[in-house]
Amino acid sequence: MERTLAIIKPDGLLGNYTDDIKKTIIEYGSSIFKEKIVQLDEATVEQFYAQHSSKSFFSRLIKYMTSGPVLVMVLEKDNAIADWRALMGPTDASKAKITHPHSIRAKCGLDIERNCVHGSDSLKSAQREIPFFFKELSSGQ
Ligand code: IDP
C-alpha cells in the first residue's frame, strides 16, 4: 500500500464538489486514511509551496489557497500517488476540459490556477507533504 496527500482546494470545497470527489476516490479503490478541514494561513501555504516561491504566480497562489478552507486527505491504495495524479488530470483545468474531460480538474476546476485539487507528485513529495499536515504520520509512508 502507498499513501499520497490529496487536497480539495477552496474552489472545490466552496463549490460543493467534495462529495463527488470523495465518491470518485472510493470508487477508484482508495481509502481515505486521514482527513481534516483546515483554513490555511499565508505562512503555511508559503512553506507548503516553497518550491514555487520564485514563480510569478506565487502571490496569487497564496491568495487562492487562503481564500477559504481546504480538505486535506491522506489516500491509501496500491500506486496511490500516480493513480491520484491521473484522476486529478493536468494542472491547467481549462486544458483538462479538452484533453482529459473525465478528470476531476476538468469537472471542478476553472483554469491553471483554480484547479480544485492537489496531489503529491512523487514519493519524495508525499513523504514531505503527509507529515506536513499530519504530524502523527512522521515517516510519511
Ligand atoms: P500541480 O498542482 O499540478 O502539481 P504545480 O506546477 O506544482 O502543479 O503548481 C502548484 C499549483 O500552483 C497549481 O496546482 C496551481 O494551483 C498553481 N499554478 C501552477 N502554475 C500556475 C500558473 O502558471 N499560474 C497560476 N497558478 C499556477
From TrEMBL:
Which transformation does this protein catalyse, written as a reaction? Answer: a 2'-deoxyribonucleoside 5'-diphosphate + ATP = a 2'-deoxyribonucleoside 5'-triphosphate + ADP; a ribonucleoside 5'-diphosphate + ATP = a ribonucleoside 5'-triphosphate + ADP
Q: Where in the cell is it found?
A: Mitochondrion intermembrane space; Mitochondrion matrix
Which prosthetic group or cofactor does it need?
Mg(2+)
Source domain of life:
Eukaryota
* Residues that, per the record, bind ATP: 9, 57, 85, 91, 105, 115
GO cellular component term of the entry, any:
mitochondrial intermembrane space
GO BP term, pick one: CTP biosynthetic process
Main localisation: mitochondrion
One of the record's GO molecular function terms: metal ion binding
Protein EC: 2.7.4.6
The UniProt entry, under PANTHER family, shows: NUCLEOSIDE DIPHOSPHATE KINASE, NUCLEOSIDE DIPHOSPHATE KINASE DDB_G0292928-RELATED
Q: What is this protein called?
A: Nucleoside diphosphate kinase
The protein's organism comes out as Sphenostylis stenocarpa
